[in-house]
Amino acid sequence: MRVVLRARGDFGEWRDTARGLLAQGVDPRDIDWLSEEAVGQELFPPVPAPRSAAHRVSVPKDFLPLAESLICHSDLARFDLAYRLLWRLQSDKNLLLIKSDPDVERAHALNRSVHRDGHKMHAFVRFKEVPAPGLRRAFVAWFEPDHWIVARNAGFFQRRFTDMDWMIATPKGSIVWDGESVRFCDEPAEQPDIMDDADDLWRTYYANIFNPARLKVKMMQTEMPKKYWKNLPEAVLIPELIVGAEQRVREMAERAASNSAPVFHARLQSRKT
Amino acid sequence: MKKTLKARLAILSDAAKYDASCASSGTSKRDSSASGGLGSTEGSGICHAYAPDGRCSSLLKILMTNFCIYDCAYCINRSSSNVERARFSPEEVVWLTLEFYRRNYIEGLFLSSGIIQGSDYTMEQMVRIARDLRLKHNFRGYIHLKTIPEASARLIEEAGLFADRLSINIELPTDAGVEAFAPQKHPANIRRSMGELKAKIDEASEPTLQTKRRKRFVPAGQTTQMIIGADQASDATILGASAGLYDRYRMRRVYYSAFSPIPDASKALPLIKPPLMREHRLYQADWLYRFYSFGIHEITAARPDGMLDLAVDPKLAWALENRARFPVDINKADKEMLLRVPGFGVKTVTAILNTRRFKRLALDDLARLKVSIKKVQAFIEAAGWTPAKLIDRADLRTMFLPEPVQLSLL
Ligand code: SF4
To answer: In the predicted model, is pLDDT for residue B256 greater than 70?
Structure first.
């Protein structure tokens, strides 16, 4: 059976479909999960799968957050995996506790990846100020997530940037906050072209907080992979900071200690004696 | 002519980079959805950027001013240094914090300062910044203030109402070190300030009689920092000092900062490469003390000079010294012993304990838990696996050493 989903991180879509399939006893091995995008070009779209919001299925309470996060992953195999777990849980309630089971392990791997993507979004979104019509200030950010995580992370930004209007636009949908409500749209957005003068101050800070005597480039790159650099205002400085580091340390050593202290030091010293 | 804001930001962030901490964790959970203001702290702090030194940049870490009337030999801001000086007004610090926060560059502010005029004068300005952020601007992000050790108790108390975390640097591991390199600072005063702060934190954590609510006071506790490698203190001395700080003042963290060459360094100190590996091993040992119930003497017993082994991590070093306690049967051993297996972290141990209720674990299962089999196999027994006397091998240590670097001709 071919099952086609919009597949843009909407958990309810998968859940209702999975309930329907489970109610009919469809074996995971008999399902071919597809996304609308993947079948878009086909002449004869497949018949919609049975959906059932009413059919109740009981699952251990750990399954829900795991499945919600799984469904946001970009790997198409996520739907099959989530359904297989659901299927197996019907006869083995303890399945999720067996962390070394291949399905469970895979689900956790995808889950980690979705969480990591969310963390990176919290960390690397950069708002730029835009002219605002009213009293509230307005900001826009462009971000490129790996997975369909935009909607599930809206709450974080709403709770944090409550007193300003903002939009986060991404190729996997956008969220907008206006002080009243958060709206989500799952259509791909275009990258806006905006400048913000504060970025320059931020770059000044970034360049100066770095200690050239402690250069550890690999460490930086595992935490801030290159794929994020293009949307980070500070990242343009990285190459020159790395190249200049050794030179700066050498200069410090060569300059050694100077013999004269500043005038106010002498004054302080004389005050004490 | 007065320097521009940008020029002063350059000077005052440069001066702050020798502080190891940039953490924004451990505080109470809060957000702005009810207040309609700005800022939140949810669980662990976020690293918004990483500098090429691999350090997480989470807070706007700046000095209010780098003018200082003290003359601490290891410090770039000491009065005898020829470094360029600058100063922010409290309003400027508030502005920078808010504007940086709105653009999601930072989690909040970590403010320290050189001492100008006097301890109280300086501390008062810092408190004013924190107060304005909270009360005037409805800011709920993270605030860490480095308190001035000699400031009066009244100011520290007020700081604690607005800050998430306060810190007082112990500076060097021994009193003699502090007296030699920071002649105007007094170890006894530093300890007294730490003790008073702990007492206030304890007091605030008791629910009051009338309201049954706990007072909000420095929810992320106090931390401290010591400089490593400027004086001659051994690792055993350093870790002993840390253990004392954790136990006596309930420090959340002791930060170790490898002494780093600074521009216009004092002649009293060596111009060396910062001992980064040593700093790393100290953090690992500190971690074993806090989360793996190792005693400090166990960690440092192996070597007569009291230094940690730089080639292997302290947990592995301990295991190699205590081979009689291995192999550990992962299907039977208790939690405490599992935690002592080199290569097992706290998460792994929890997963093992959970999973073995349902099945006997083999090496495959460990591999799926993302454990490096190569690293642990000599130390454990599992279903279908007994280490073939690996543990007795004389060359066991060398098996864990990093590959020797091949030299090539240019
Ligand atoms: S008091 Fe602080 S800022 Fe002043 S010289 Fe000593 S360590 Fe540096």
So the answer is: yes
Percent of chain B at pLDDT > 90 equals 61
- Residue B78 CA to ligand 1 center (angstroms) comes to 6
Ligand 1 pocket member B75 (CB < 6 A): yes
What six digits make up the tokens of A127? 């708002």
For ligand 1, say whether the CB of B260 is within 6 Å of any of its atoms.
no
Which of B6, B103, B260 lies closest to A211 in CB terms?
A: B260
Do B233 and B329 reside in the same domain of the chain? no
Residue B408's pLDDT band (cuts 50, 70, 90)? very low
Whether residue A214 and residue B36 make contact (CB cut-off 8 A), yes or no, is no
Q: How many CB atoms lie within 10 A of CB B85?
A: 19
Of B18, B36, B52, the CB nearest to A241: B52
What is the C-alpha to C-alpha distance for residues A264 and B294, in angstroms, rounded to an integer?
A: 49
CATH of the domain at B224: 3.20.20.70
Does an H or E element contain B349, and which? helix B346-355
Instruction: List the single residue in B with minimal CA-CA distance to A212.
Output: B53
**Final residue of a structural domain among B316, B348, B368:** B316
Residues A214, B56: C-beta atoms closer than 8 Å: no
**B230 in contact with ligand 1, CB cutoff 6 A:** no
Q: How far apart are CA B177 and CA B233, in angstroms?
A: 8
User: Domain residues for B162?
Assistant: 5-274
Contact assignment for A164 to B361 by CB distance below 8 Å: no
Residue B187 lies in a domain: yes
pTM for the model: 0.90
Do A198 and B103 make contact, defined as CB atoms within 8 angstroms? Answer: yes
E strand or H helix at A140: strand A138-142
Q: What is the rounded average pLDDT of the residues A242-255?
A: 77
pLDDT, position B409: 45
Do B213 and B307 lie in a common domain? no
- Are A219 and B54 inside 8 Å of each other by CB? yes
Residues 6+ apart with CB under 8 A from B201: B160, B217, B218, B221, B222, B250
Show the tokens assigned to B209.
């009689």
Count of domains in chain B? 3
The chain-wide mean pLDDT, for chain B, equals 89
CA distance linking residue B328 with residue A77, whole number of Å: 38
* Calpha distance B301→B318 (Å, rounded): 9
**Smallest CA–CA separation between B14 and chain A, in Å?**
5
Same domain, B332 and B284: no
- Looking at the CA of residue B69, tell me the nearest atom of ligand 1: 4
Q: ipTM of this predicted complex?
A: 0.91
Do B177 and B302 sit in the same domain of this protein? Answer: no
What pLDDT, on a 0 to 100 scale, did the predictor assign at position A257? 61
Name the closest residue on chain A to residue B17, using Cα atoms. A209
Query: Do B86 and B228 reside in the same domain of the chain?
Result: yes
Distance from CA of B16 to the nearest CA of A (A): 7
**Same domain assignment for residues B152 and B123:** yes
